[in-house]
């Protein structure tokens, strides 16, 4: 199906506007991912605060269960805010998503624990995680479309890599915050009030992101749709038309490694190292930080390569690297040596960065402008809900019954197989006008 906007009518954003948009996308992604990742990094402490004493293992599973439930709402938020983005504009959807995330995270930082409100505190925590899920689900496709539709074709992946690097940097900052707090504060203080600090930081960061996004114009592609009167009433219906079904199928499979890998390699890593390999909590956070730091540096590099040689070679290389390196890296983690563990984390971070740098340009380039964010959000968020948010819960539960320390490696490697197959089946789209796709 051809795009509703012809290449001749698609305007190009000036470089100054493109720089502002890229900065806004990176800051917004930073806030969204910082807020979401803090929960994962502090899961062990949240389990203590929000569940009764004496059932630590079950409490951790329930804590990751609440983490996973929020991902059920990602497709909901993706579709609702995706349709808003396709009908009203990318910018309003981005502003709303950021406001929801910052507000919900701030409330989590203010919630009383189980000892004060009992089950009520758990239910409120669950409600805030649901709102966070809706927010992140709508943020991804709206923000990435916002940056990608402003970017020139020959630099699209490179410019879109800055929000991606912003997301790993956000996890690195969240990781560092958790490390500093757990290192400097005694356990009693951390469980009493220290854990709240990273969540409450969301309020000022959200205000900054809100101010920046409110000042921007919408994308040239969306403005052209408005001017030609080609905004569709129900973009979700168009997603499921026969002409778009092959692209939709790819949109469900392409993010498999992105979904599983991000949450296993980065977010679940500190808990895995602490609860299953007997690392201290600060040491587990250091290993995760090494993986995040290496990925953050490598993402723009791989994105620039993909603008020159294509999306498929970069993502296929990343998939092969993960398949080959996942099990050896986790065996190295199992040695308990800090230097080797940091090295293994860094290797996994670099291998994953090739996929992470390219997945969003590939998703963006699957669909035409009038339904892009709805379709993009649906495929990406359903897969993230199934393989991303549930990964810590699934792996914790399987470890409790099998005791197999290599489960995370198998999980990530299998997801890389799925992404690799989809990437191989997908056509090359690098460097072309977005109106030429689909």
Description:
With 438 residues, this protein is mostly helical. It has one domain (10-230, 240-436): Up-down Bundle (Growth Hormone, Chain: A), CATH 1.20.1250. Helices cover 79% and strands 0% of the residues. The protein contains 21 helices and no strands. The longest helix has 32 residues, at 56-87. The radius of gyration is 21 Å and the shape is globular. Residues 1-10 have low confidence and may be disordered.
Summary tags:
single chain; 438 residues; Growth Hormone, Chain: A
**CATH architecture title:** Up-down Bundle
The top-level CATH class is Mainly Alpha
Alpha carbon gap, first and last residue? 6 Å
Runs with pLDDT <50, length 5+? 1-10
Which geometry do the CA atoms define? globular
Helix content: over 70%
Task: Let me know the CATH homologous superfamily.
Answer: MFS general substrate transporter like domains
Number of domains: 1
Number of helical elements: 21
Work out the number of β strands.
0
Helix/strand order: HHHHHHHHHHHHHHHHHHHHH
Estimated radius of gyration: 21 Å
Protein name: Glycine betaine/L-proline transporter ProP
InterPro entries: H+-coupled_symporters (IPR051084), MFS (IPR011701), MFS_dom (IPR020846), MFS_trans_sf (IPR036259), Sugar_transporter_CS (IPR005829)
Subcellular location: Cell membrane
Organism: Streptomyces levis
